Every structure is written in structure tokens, then in C-alpha cells.
Amino acid sequence: MWYDYRFRAYPDRTGVTAEVERHIDIHRQAYNHTRYEYSVLDTDEDNIGSAYQHQKRLTEWKDEWPVFSKVHSKALQKTVERFYDNLSNLSEKKQNGHKVGWLNWKSPASTRV
Predict the structure, then answer these.
(1) In this structure, is residue 5 part of a structural domain?
(2) CA angle (87, 34, 32) in 5-degree steps
(3) Cβ–Cβ contacts within 10 Å for residue 27, how many?
(4) What count of other Cβ atoms lies within 10 Å of the Cβ of residue 77?
(5) Domain that includes residue 81, residue range
(6) Which alpha helices (DSSP H) does the chain contain, by range?
(7) How far, in Å, CA of 86 to CA of 80, rounded?
């Protein structure tokens, strides 16, 4: 049997608020960079077009931008996966006749804790 425990988090009391905000900002940057690469890079030439192919590029990102090395690789993979999940949700809505646009750029002000 699987149990989920839910506890209130009080990050100010333990002094980790700044660290949490920094991690959220790094994931915001990764999301935005995934969005940028998806829209700009040629899918055939750069092998971009699926979450798995995009996750392979994370090691290149870490070499080019050391800030991505500050968070765990699995968390960055989930950020890339979240972008592709959002993209598939948009395409499903479009197929169902809804009027949809494009995924928004995440600004630094939108990720304040």
C-alpha cells in the first residue's frame, strides 16, 4: 500500500527560501531555453522534436551554462518533459476546436515564491 504524507512547509524558518527561489529560477530558465530551442532550431538537423531528444542536450547546456549544473539532472529532465506535456495539451485543445496560441515565455516575475 502506498502512503502520501502531506506536511506544511515553512522554508523561512529553516533558512532555505533563497535556495528554493534560486532553483525555481534555474528551472524557469531551462523551460524558456527549451521553448527557444524548440521554436528556433531545425528539427531534422539538430535532432530536436521529442522530449527524449531534447533531454540528451542537457549535458551540452551544462557545459555551456554552468548554472544548470546547480540542480539535479532528473529535475531538469522533468522541466523539459513539462514543456512537451504543455505542448501536447495545446495540440489536443486545437484538435478539439479550441483557439490556442503558443506557450508563453516565463518571466522572472512570474516565478516569485
Answers:
(1) no
(2) 95
(3) 19
(4) 17
(5) 14-111
(6) 11-14, 17-40, 43-46, 51-56, 58-64, 73-95
(7) 10
Residue 9 covered by a domain? no
Does 98 fall in a domain?
yes
Residue 57 forms part of a structural domain: yes
Q: Over the stretch 49-89, which tens digit does the pLDDT of each residue have?
A: 788 888 888 999 999 999 999 999 999 999 999 999 998 88
Model-level pTM greater than 0.85?
no
Q: Could you tell me which residues come within 8 angstroms of residue 29 by beta carbon, excluding any fewer than 6 positions away?
A: 67, 68
Nearest Cα neighbor of 49 from 34, 58, 57, 38 is 38
